[in-house]
């Protein structure tokens, strides 16, 4: 009979006791809070409680600074000691490193002390060490929010999980982080979320512990994630501290923050008001929980990098190639140059840059922008009709010729119908411009040196290079004079490129009137000896200061010199501009050599090699009386070959058009 009555009284008493011990607190931020901080925990200037920063192997604790009586022992002798109901709610935020894993987690902790001497970080969350883990003497209840899996072989095999532990890190209850929304269980990532709201409620009567989590600003889910009966009496001491612990480990370090916290003993914790809470700390971008994003970003950046590299390489390669072309001329392999550069170099081929017209086109002076080198750019308006590839090969091959007495070809460029050839720039102009300059006289030593130089250049073309190159247009206007009065033979090989343009070889004569060997008009076939013929004429021209063909058309230099030679008065032909200052032997040698070279029959002409030996007085010149072929016919032959030349083809050089016409008239008369 008594027991129901007794029970009723007891219940009344208990309710009174409960209300008597009711207690609560609420912190929106921790600016002015009754919190004790231990370890690396601190309150930042936003009022946010930071348990750990992003440093390896650190621990932080934060506890409400007064212990709270949780165990009802008042009637322990009659009833089993009882744990008071409590309810708490807090908002936490985990900021993981942008690359690599974060860790290890934070825990709502109920402990007999705020001090945890010898406790370890990492998986042990700054609460236990390996020797006291799971020891019943700890009296610690933990609700862990762990982000690293693999602690021993316990239930918390999922990294992102919520667990309830007694006295250690082996979870009694463990659930992957999730919340219920309209009956569906939504898993979510606690590290990824801006912040997480957590509610922990314990009913002392039913001994049921509820744990609920939800992403920040979501309403509280009606169904808890964990709702299980758990006997925590054995863990509790009469008076306990409530708070938080967090830790990082080696190579796994997240920042752990608490934004706000409310607590109530024997009652419902006051709700947190989001508008009063500090803003969650910003997340580091590119979390390691996004391996796909990371991979995609990695691939993209790798691609971008590769593309940039390629672009750089191509640009560099292009630049380098041009650079090399301009710099490395010595290597003797001219390349195609950029039209843009040549256009720039010659200031757009303006009149003021024009330094000459003749021999296939106009010549412009220019300064290559990339190297600052002076060049002569020969612009030929109509490029050869032959295949570009064949043509280029030929030019490239000519470009490999390198000799001190040649105007070296540095490069070429084809632009629309224009062919551009780039040569060394030679400052003193052509030999003929010096020979026939009224205000300037070349002295004998200069002339002799020039002629020897031309002979050296021709020798290189004819015999010393890998293949025989016939110049085809040896004449005084094709010989350029450099600063030291050395001769530089220009335009070599080009005549051939053009002669191929002509329909028939027999009617084609490449060369300039007065320098064309007689046999050329018949066969049209240039040879080394036709070059020697022209060189002979050049010798006579240079000594006499007289053009090969007179403007009257009745005068022919070769004949005139020969006549004087036969009359034994050869020195009569010497240029008056020399003012009788010259070495007679040398002059006589050069004049007679000129006659020897300009003989009518090609076979009787010496080779250029022999010519250089005569010029250097290595061999004596043969006696004039031995020249059987210099008969009376020579003069008429010279005239008849001029007569035979077709009008349209006579001048392949632009420099002497009127003269050739006149010669033809002379031939008829
Ligand atoms: C903090 O502690 C002081 C002194 O013990 C007390 O007056 C105050 O109410 C406490 N504040 C909170 C929010 O618990
Ligand atoms: C708890 O903190 C409050 C506020 O800082 C302080 O006034 C109070 O004395 C502290 N109580 C204990 C027991 O340390
Ligand atoms: C905490 O204090 C700082 C200044 O020290 C202030 O900027 C911040 O707003 C405060 N936070 C809260 C939640 O009161
Ligand atoms: C313990 O319970 C008994 C009844 O079972 C009651 O009479 C007594 O007052 C209680 N003790 C305290 C300290 O309240
Ligand atoms: C573990 O912690 C306990 C209690 O603080 C301490 O007595 C013990 O020496 C610690 N053990 C180790 C291995 O640090
Ligand atoms: C969890 O707690 C219950 C009740 O105290 C106990 O029976 C069970 O063995 C515990 N489980 C683990 C994994 O500790
Ligand atoms: C715990 O959750 C269960 C199931 O949702 C609920 O019935 C109970 O009232 C909850 N307990 C507390 C103390 O909120
Ligand atoms: C939250 O705080 C703001 C600002 O103090 C207040 O206006 C609002 O009513 C509060 N909301 C609740 C639900 O208490």
UniProtKB/TrEMBL annotation:
Swiss-Prot/TrEMBL catalytic activity: L-seryl-[protein] + ATP = O-phospho-L-seryl-[protein] + ADP + H(+); L-threonyl-[protein] + ATP = O-phospho-L-threonyl-[protein] + ADP + H(+)
Region annotation (Disordered) ranges: 648-669
Pfam families, A to Z: Lectin_legB, Pkinase
InterPro entries xref list: ConA-like_dom_sf, Kinase-like_dom_sf, L-type_Lectin-RKs, Legume_lectin_dom, Prot_kinase_dom, Protein_kinase_ATP_BS, Ser/Thr_kinase_AS
Enzyme class label: transferase
Keyword terms: ATP-binding, Cell membrane, Kinase, Lectin, Membrane, Nucleotide-binding, Receptor, Serine/threonine-protein kinase, Signal, Transferase, Transmembrane, Transmembrane helix
Molecular function GO terms recorded: ATP binding; carbohydrate binding; protein serine/threonine kinase activity
GO cellular component: a single term: plasma membrane
Residues involved in ATP binding: 378
Keyword Protease: no
Keyword Transmembrane belongs to the record: yes
EC number: 2.7.11.1
Topological category with respect to the lipid bilayer: Single-pass type I membrane protein
Transmembrane segments: 288-317
Family statement drawn from the similarity comment of this UniProt entry: In the N-terminal section; belongs to the leguminous lectin family. Belongs to the leguminous lectin family.
Protein name: non-specific serine/threonine protein kinase
């Amino acid at each position: 009979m008594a027991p129901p009555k007794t029970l009723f009284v007891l219940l009344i008493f208990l309710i009174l006791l409960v209300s008597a011990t009711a207690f609560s607190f609420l912190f929106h931020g921790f600016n002015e809070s009754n919190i004790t901080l231990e370890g690396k925990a601190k309150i930042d200037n936003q009022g946010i409680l930071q348990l750990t920063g992003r440093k390896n192997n650190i621990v932080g604790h934060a506890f409400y600074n007064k212990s709270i009586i949780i165990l009802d022992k008042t009637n322990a002798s009659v009833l089993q000691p009882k744990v008071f109901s409590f309810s708490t709610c807090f908002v936490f935020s985990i900021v993981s490193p942008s690359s690599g894993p974060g860790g290890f987690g934070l825990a709502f902790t109920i402990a007999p002390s705020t001090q945890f001497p010898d406790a370890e970080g990492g998986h042990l969350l700054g609460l236990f060490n390996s020797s006291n883990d799971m020891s019943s003497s700890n009296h610690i209840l933990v609700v862990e929010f762990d982000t690293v899996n693999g602690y021993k072989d316990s239930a918390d095999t999922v990294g992102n999980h919520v667990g309830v532990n007694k006295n250690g890190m082996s979870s009694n209850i463990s659930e992957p982080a999730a919340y219920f929304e309209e009956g569906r269980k939504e898993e979510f990532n606690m590290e990824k979320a801006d912040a997480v709201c957590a509610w922990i409620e314990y009913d002392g009567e039913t001994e049921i512990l509820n744990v609920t989590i939800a992403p920040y600003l979501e309403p509280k889910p009606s169904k808890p994630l964990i709702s299980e009966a758990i006997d925590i009496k054995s863990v509790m001491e009469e008076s306990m501290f409530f708070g938080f612990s967090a830790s990082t480990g080696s190579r796994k370090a997240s920042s752990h923050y608490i934004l706000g916290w409310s607590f109530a003993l024997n009652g419902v914790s006051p709700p947190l008001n989001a508008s009063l809470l500090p803003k969650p700390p910003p997340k580091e971008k590119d979390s390691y929980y996004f391996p796909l994003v990371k991979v995609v970003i990695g691939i993209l950046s790798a691609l971008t990098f590769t593309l940039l590299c390629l672009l750089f390489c191509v640009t560099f390669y292009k630049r380098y190639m041009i650079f090399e072309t301009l710099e490395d001329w010595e290597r003797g392999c001219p390349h195609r140059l950029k039209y843009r550069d040549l256009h720039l170099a010659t200031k757009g081929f303006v009149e003021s840059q024009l330094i000459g017209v003749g021999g296939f086109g106009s010549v412009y002076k220019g300064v290559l922008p990339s190297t600052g080198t002076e060049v002569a750019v020969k612009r030929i308006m109509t490029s050869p009709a032959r295949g570009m590839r064949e043509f280029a090969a030929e030019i490239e091959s000519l470009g490999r010729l390198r000799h001190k007495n040649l105007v070296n070809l540095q490069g070429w460029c084809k632009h629309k119908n224009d062919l551009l050839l780039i040569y060394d720039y030679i400052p003193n102009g052509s030999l003929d411009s010096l020979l026939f300059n009224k205000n300037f006289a070349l002295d004998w030593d200069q002339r002799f040196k020039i002629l020897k130089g031309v002979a050296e250049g021709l020798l290189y073309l004819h015999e010393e290079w890998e293949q025989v190159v016939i110049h085809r247009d040896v004449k005084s206007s094709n010989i350029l004079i450099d600063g030291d009065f050395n001769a530089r033979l220009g335009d070599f090989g080009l005549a051939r490129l053009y002669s191929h343009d002509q329909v028939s070889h027999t009617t084609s004569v490449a060369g300039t009137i007065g320098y064309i060997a007689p046999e050329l008009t018949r066969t049209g076939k240039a040879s080394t000896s036709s070059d020697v013929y022209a060189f002979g004429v050049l010798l006579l021209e240079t000594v006499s200061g007289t053009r090969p063909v007179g403007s009257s058309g009745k005068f022919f230099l070769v004949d005139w010199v020969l006549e004087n030679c036969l009359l034994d008065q050869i020195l009569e032909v010497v240029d008056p501009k020399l003012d009788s200052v010259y070495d007679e032997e040398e002059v006589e040698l050069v004049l007679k050599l000129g006659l020897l070279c300009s003989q009518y029959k090609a076979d009787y002409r010496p080779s250029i090699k022999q010519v250089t030996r005569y010029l250097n007085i290595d061999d004596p010149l043969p006696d004039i009386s031995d020249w059987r072929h210099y008969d009376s016919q020579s003069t008429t032959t010279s005239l008849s070959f001029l007569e035979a030349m077709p009008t349209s083809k006579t001048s392949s050089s632009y420099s002497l058009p009127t003269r050739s016409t006149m010669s033809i008239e002379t031939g008829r008369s």
